[in-house]
Design goal:
This protein has two domains: 218 residues, Fructose-1,6-Bisphosphatase, subunit A, domain 1 (Fructose-1,6-Bisphosphatase, Chain A, domain 1, 2-Layer Sandwich); 124 residues, 3-Layer(aba) Sandwich (D-Maltodextrin-Binding Protein, domain 2). It is built from eleven helices and 14 strands. Bound molecules: adenosine-2'-5'-diphosphate (A2P) and magnesium ion (3 copies). The site of adenosine-2'-5'-diphosphate (A2P) has 15 residues, from helix 7. Its EC number is 3.1.3.7.
Length: 358
């Protein structure tokens, strides 16, 4: 039974559920209809990212008005492009939870388009090691979202730099925790049957999974990483995008560990959720450049969910991910997530291949 952070967890689950309803509507549209624009760093953002972020911030502002928010997106593009703005507004205005009580807990509808733009800009906190900070990735794995594959709606609460609550909504993962891990690219659009899962964790209270539906929240059930008895049967997950994680180094590490199965490539923090429920075993994220700093919203929820399911998450140097240094994981490099019992063995192989051994 959840005792600490019960209210934060409930609001986070409902906020992610509502945002995921919005993203699902956009997911069904063709690539052109997703309203994709390119950001300054050349990464894509869609009407789904903007709409989901506005809904989540609205729920947080209603319930926790004093907390800081670190979110990926902001409204400047929408202030210039009124057509895009109006499409986002249409989605935000029309997306509600069917459970009226739950919708009320989130504070109900965003009143108008200007409030929506104002909400979208409320995620620019610099983060840091003091106080309560929510971090939001409204669509994690936008490239997967555009490709018709995996993506996640991610929300986490940090307190003094430590992750206390994490929720991941994965609309395209199988509901069934024991379903085999597949790449799921080019999913049949409009057929959500058997798909959609909400992962959650509270520090010290374990990790759960439940169906991500449209109605009243289902009860969560505990999930655990799979005990890895024989490394050669391990299933490891990595990014689809070769630019996000070094796939050739990952292959060398797998070989060193004696892993015989090919890696499963999927976008987003769906990888963290998948290993937390034992559908996969190991998640490696290996830097492709010295200059890229991982963002806290790309890892906070997944990090806690994996650790609460019996895993260990470090960077390639063996340090825990430090969410207290700002909007990025500036003091970390890459990610190594594995069941606690084998993490040091995996880290050893990672460090040998990357030449990090002293
Ligand atoms: N060079 C990079 N290295 C690692 N991750 C990156 C890089 N560029 C973008 N990302 C981020 O990786 C995340 C997706 O990871 P994955 O490939 O595992 O699904 C996205 O949030 C994406 O950010 P963005 O949202 O700005 O596109
Ligand atoms: Mg992301
Ligand atoms: Mg994103
Ligand atoms: Mg992005």
């Amino acid at each position: 039974m959840t005792t600490l952070y019960a209210r934060e967890l409930e609001i986070a689950l409902l906020a992610v559920q509502r945002a995921a309803l919005l993203t699902r509507r956009v997911f069904r549209e063709s690539a052109e209809q997703k309203g994709t624009v390119s950001k300054d760093d050349a990464s894509p953002v869609t009407v789904g990212d903007f709409g989901a972020q506005a809904l989540i911030i609205s729920a947080l502002r209603h319930n926790f008005p004093r907390d800081a928010i670190v979110a990926e997106e902001e409204a400047s593009v929408l202030r210039e492009d009124t057509r895009l703005r109006d499409r986002v507004w249409g989605l935000v205005r029309d997306t509600k939870l069917s459970d009226i009580g739950a919708e009320g807990l989130l504070g109900g509808a965003v009143p108008d388009v200007d409030s929506m733009l104002h909400l979208l800009d409320q995620g620019q906190s610099q983060g840091g090691r003091i106080g309560r900070v929510w971090t939001i990735d409204p669509i994690d794995g936008t490239k997967g979202f555009l490709r018709g594959g995996q993506y996640a709606v991610a929300l986490a609460l940090l307190e003094d730099g430590d992750v206390k609550v994490g929720v991941l909504g994965c609309p395209n993962l199988p509901v069934d925790d024991s379903a085999p891990l597949t790449e799921n690219i080019g999913l049949e659009v409009g057929n959500d049957k058997g798909r959609g899962v909400l992962f959650a964790a509270v520090k010290g209270e374990g990790a759960t999974s439940r169906p991500l539906g449209t109605g009243t929240l289902a009860e969560g059930h505990k999930i655990h990483m799979k005990p890895l008895i024989d490394m050669k049967n391990a299933c490891f997950c990595e990014s689809v995008e070769a630019g996000h994680s070094n796939q050739s180094e990952a292959a060398k590490i797998a070989q060193k560990l004696g892993i015989t199965k090919p890696s499963v490539r999927m976008d987003s923090q769906a990888k963290y959720g998948s290993i937390a429920r034992g559908a996969g075993d190991i998640y490696l994220r290996l830097p492709t450049s010295k200059s890229y700093q991982e963002k806290i919203w790309d890892h906070a929820a997944g990090d806690l969910i994996v650790r609460e399911a019996g895993g260990l998450v470090t960077d390639t140097r063996g340090n825990r991910l430090d969410f207290g240094v700002g909007r990025t994981l500036a003091s970390n490099s890459g990610v190594v997530a594995a069941p606690s019992a084998v993490h040091s063995q995996v880290l050893d192989a990672v460090q040998e291949v990357l030449g990090l051994k002293k």
